[in-house]
Amino acid sequence: MVAITYDIEIPSSIPAAKMFKAVVLDADTLIPKIMPQAIKNVEILEGDGGVGTVKIIHFGEGSQYKCAKHRVDALDTENLTHSYTIVEGDALAGVLESITYHVKIVPTEDGGCICKNRSIYHTKGDVEISGESHFETDPFRNIHHKICICTNHNH
């Protein structure tokens, strides 16, 4: 298995706790409201939203994907971190075993924050992903980016 890491950072004028609430805690209901073309709805299959929770995400009509199942691996509301792993779905494109996301919202001195997102793509066997094609179409990386931007504009 090959692991490929991709990092993105988005600065924001929004306070870190407020951004974490939007991007992580309220994301299951907020994203379908502000970006229904990206995500139609989120269904909890097991758990209470905390570590170990398994969810299925149904993508909207604007997405090339239909659904993805993900598991919450870590959730720390004090340190504003969240990790989850996509374990099933067409977003894995038949070449990925899983995709793990680490989200961290870091407060800045000016009262805003930096939204940090690390995506780790775990390929099946020795499959190599060429270029940035999968990274550019990764629905979750793109949604994190868009929700940080939308939250900035609505602040």
From TrEMBL:
Residues 1-150 form the Bet v I/Major latex protein domain. The keyword ATP-binding does not apply. One of its GO terms (biological process) is abscisic acid-activated signaling pathway. Keywords: Pathogenesis-related protein, Plant defense. It holds the Pfam family Bet_v_1. GO terms for cellular component: cytoplasm; nucleus. The keyword Acetylation does not apply. One of its GO terms (molecular function) is abscisic acid binding. CDD domains: Bet_v1-like. InterPro entries: Bet_v_I/MLP, Bet_v_I_allergen, Plant_def-hormone_signal, START-like_dom_sf. Belongs to the BetVI family. This is Major allergen Pru ar 1. It comes from Sesamum calycinum.
